[in-house]
Hints:
The structure is a homodimer. By secondary structure, chain A is mainly alpha-helical.
Amino acid sequence: xxxxxxxxxxxxxxxxxxxxxxxxxxxxxxxxxxxxxxxxxxxxxxxxxxxxxxxxxxxxxxxxxxxxxxxxxxxxxxxxxxxxxxxxxxxxxxxxxxxxxxxxxxxxxxxxxxxxxxxxxxxxxxxxxxxxxxxxxxxxxxxxxxxxxxxxxxxxxxxxxxxxxxxxxxxxxxxxxxxxxxxxxxxxxxxx
Amino acid sequence: xxxxxxxxxxxxxxxxxxxxxxxxxxxxxxxxxxxxxxxxxxxxxxxxxxxxxxxxxxxxxxxxxxxxxxxxxxxxxxxxxxxxxxxxxxxxxxxxxxxxxxxxxxxxxxxxxxxxxxxxxxxxxxxxxxxxxxxxxxxxxxxxxxxxxxxxxxxxxxxxxxxxxxxxxxxxxxxxxxxxxxxxxxxxxxxx
DNA sequence: AGTCTAATTGACCCCAAGGTCAAATATTAA
DNA sequence: TTAATATTTGACCTTGGGGTCAATTAGACT
Lengths: 192, 192
């Protein structure tokens, strides 16, 4: 029944590994990097995840599922959903000065995997679309409640926000000026 | 003085290699891929370019220098610079259905090299900034001529365009619908 | 205690990657 | 013709990657 007990917590392992993948990209992260990070040996890791790819998938799933669940719930419960939504962007103004400026793992993955690994690309696409659908719902509800002025269709507004998100996660790696970044966000959020 | 003549044209070689880098990314493009593409052997290539990295740099330099020179000149000479500028974006609506949807090599490089190769990242940044400065000049001149309505500073408008560009080069890999893409472009270009 | 089970360890395998180099080759200058 | 020079060729080297596996170990159950 029960053999030797596991030495690691799977959720924690996935958090750490996906953080590394996020920072360095998929290909550039070696199994040895991962092993050092989680203090494990090859065999142990491969005993649970049959390949580097499966490990990445599991890590991304955990990260995005919990992250998007949390986001969705908090926007639903919020008394000021539009303010919260805008904060997602404004928070990046400070985040851009973090020691590692790694962008969004979904955008990064879409760039890295396009033309190389359809399955992993589509996984990132899946979560980006879920992100978008959360935005749509939030905007729709906001329009119904009249707390938003724009009469543009929520689908277009959210598409724009997703696109702006994708852009800024690249652009922030190029320009560090906080004021300029804030102005850019102001401009793009002026639609809502 | 003159020994055995070269069998290849350097400019052509660089075009072909950078096209491959563009399509597959830097790391994922192997020297063998490159050699097959240009019909050469290892030694020949390494006789001219001392490393894969130098080859990439030379290729990117050629591509961007000529591309941006052409863009700058055509915008300067144009009788309808703003229309031309907008066309840069609208042209992507059809480009997004090409067999390989590879985005912008500058954005791709910034994503791939951040945290991995500062020199290559900064090279991509350099050209992206030159792109931006061309946009600034175009917008500035358009404001002076009064062929543009927005009173927003050209620096902000061009930053927005660059950011939009970065975004759409990711987003287009996710959504293929032409109508939606056109609406998105309309929205973002409404500022100018 | 002894047995069963499942996780752990780390040496090992295989391969593909970037890069090197001595020998062969094609041209120009004398 | 011959010497000098520069390019080409492709076998070869080294390194580091993902992945495997037999032996070991730590608990649970009887």
